[in-house]
Amino acid sequence: MSIYLNKNNKVIVQGITGGEGTKHTALMLKAGTNVVGGVNARKAGTTVSHVDADGNDVELPVFGSVAEAMESTGADTSIAFVPPAFSKDAIIEAIDAEIPLLVVITEGIPVQDSAYAWAYNVEKGAKTRIIGPNCPGVITPGEALVGITPNNITDKGPIGLVSKSGTLTYQMMYELRDLGFSTAIGIGGDPVIGTTHIDAIEAFEADPETKLIVMIGEIGGDAEERAAEYIKANVSKPVVGYVAGFTAPEGKTMGHAGAIVSGSAGTAQAKKEALEAAGVKVGKTPSETARLARELFEAL
Q1: How many separate helices (H) and strands (E) can be counted in the chain?
Q2: Catalytic residue flag (residue 256)
Q3: Where is coiled-coil annotated (predicted)?
Q4: Strand locations in the chain, DSSP E?
């Protein structure tokens, strides 16, 4: 089992002919992802050449729009490698086409654009699940990758991972590679994102093959505190947490646009305390977090 993504998803790539789109389409195919085409309005009607996981040559069609790609291929998933200035239009196009899953990798999208797109999706009935922006996407090891996460870190297993940070996603997958993961999701570190910790934790709770959940947060905002409330009220599976930013100076933006602390609000310590009050074991380093997860799993 997995959440959001499995080997049966049919994936299109918005921006498939660009540098990032080309590189990561190749890597997604290598990971076994069922990529069925791409979108670039200026190159509609052409094809791009790639190699699939079995080493076979494939010609992927390029379409003029997401709707056209979905109609022709039956795609149910899109990943957007589109520059920040054009990302809002790409997201709106995917929402209008009602594609079930959209992963937005792009970093640097203006917050007002993300907020507009999020509100637009809600107004349209939230028929599209958006992951990102500014994220590494989602991977179900051994089945499919829609994102930029290396597919050779770990195999399938019982751990569900949701993280604000791409790099910490990869590190936690490596730390717990002996156990393996059902699905690992990088939700992104921007102030406005499509899928939250709570969304992913709810899905992991419902997935029978996920036995333990690891959530990685960071300073800024109150997403982790809200997740703690949700976990306390709704989650029966063990949850282990890590909050990046214990040594961050107050009032300074740290890497992600959403990672800024004002006074005591949004500090790593405050988040740690909220999570621990909800029964979540919280590590002070990624390695300690992995050790706590392993100990809890072995005790199941």
Answers
A1: 9, 14
A2: yes
A3: none
A4: 10-14, 34-39, 47-51, 57-63, 77-80, 101-104, 129-131, 137-140, 144-147, 156-163, 181-186, 212-218, 239-244, 281-283
Q: Report pTM.
A: 0.95
Among residues 24, 50, 197, 256, the one annotated as catalytic is 256
Q: φ, ψ for residue 233 (rounded to 5)?
A: -90, -25
Residue 263, classed as helix, strand or coil, is coil
Binding site members for CoA:
17-20, 43, 105-107
Per-residue pLDDT of 193-222, as tens digits, reads 999 999 999 999 999 999 999 999 988 888
Edge-to-edge strand list for the sheet holding 212-218:
144-147, 137-140, 181-186, 156-163, 212-218, 239-244, 281-283
Backbone dihedral angles phi then psi of residue 37, each to the nearest 5 degrees: 165, -170
Residues annotated within a binding site for substrate: 170
